[in-house]
Amino acid sequence: MKLTRSAVAIAAAALVAAGSVPAVHHLAADGDASKPVTTLDPAVSVVDSTIAAPTSTEEAPKPSVVDATPSSEAPAVATTTEMTVVDEVFADEDPGKLASDPVDGENPEVQGSELTSVPEEPVGHPDIKPLQEAPKTYKGVDQRWVSIMEQNKDVWKNEAISVHSPSMDRDIPVAIFHATDENGQLVDNAPTVYLLNGAGGSEQDSDWIAQAFRQMFDTYGRAGVNVVVPQEGAFSYYVDWAAAPPVKNTFYKGKQMWSTFLAHELPQTVEPYMNADQDHRAVAGLSMAATSVLLLAEHNPGFYDAVGSFSGCAATSTPLPWEFVNLTVDRGAPGVMTPEHIFGERGSDYNRHNDALVNAAKLKGTAVYLSTGTGLAGEMDTAGYLKDRLVKLGVDEGDASSRAFANALTLQVEGGVIEAAMNACTHDLMVKMRANDVEVNHAELRNVGTHSWGTWRDDLKLSYDKVFKQALGLDK
Question: pTM higher than 0.85, yes or no?
């Protein structure tokens, strides 16, 4: 993510003002990171009792995958009346910066046995159709995830589809991967894991498939689990917005009703289509989406068996987290988009309804995986490590050296500041959960690590091994 100097200064100043020096986690002598660690002292505000949903926005009941009929009504908050069409937006994020791998180079192809059975034709669904063409990035080129899926279809059955969202009145591109067992046989009635992308998403080729496909396959390709990745929603926080976006561009294509889509419309559409187990599912997300997945679990108690929040900030309604939201959404439409469009006025009932820290008590009964680094540089943030990876991708050694140095500097400065803030947020959430007798099933508290893809790739498998596998009933 390429932040401006002023943005970095604001973030750094916010950390200093809050006293948010990252907590460094010392492993036990046996290397067990799951044992108790030092956490930040809780502020009084983090143990406030969970508030009820605002009366102006009726909280949806637990969704039924088969029978739920999602409401298409927007939250009862004043909406924007005019929309400006923006022809060109210069987004701040370069997806090759805060990721251990750049996005250029050859698409990954996984190694594994080919599928050993031919699936029956899908049952079909009126709101699902094959994706006709690859969606475009903000630079106007095809998003990489579509070609990566096509190249690997013989090893892991997948489909690039569009799913109609009644609440947003448009089709949403979605990647689905069908469950296969260790022998490559397709599995019916398997649980589903939903993966949400971070701020830039597929619109900036910074999505799970473009950045972590090998790890997706290594984790889920033979685990008997369906995987679903929505491929729209950059800079949206994946919630039902308080107001319509004031612009229309690559990132903001119209009405933003992501809570409704993700918890109601998408599962009731894709799970029957994939012959999935409609009683067991989990959801995970990184960075921006690490907030979103917590809210999905809190607003739909019992619907998700497990949730994985990687390098995120649960809070949204207090001053410093609000500024983090502002820095994120401004990148989608610089100088135009503000957090008020998403959450309403800061500290309002609707904002607090969408504050995952305030509502942490509602995570009780859901298995939780949390992760954070400290912002201190690790091996994966060094120029030497990044150069080696670039060279392996076929980049000329001289070019790889200069690019690796620039990327390492970005990771260690900007990525370090961001992850230090997420570190403080994560410890606040852990304190709030424990104060409300909510179990943190596994917290991956790293002594080092910046806000980057290297750790999130690790989180993908760790979250499955440590939490999701058992929560989904697959550890037998």
Answer: no
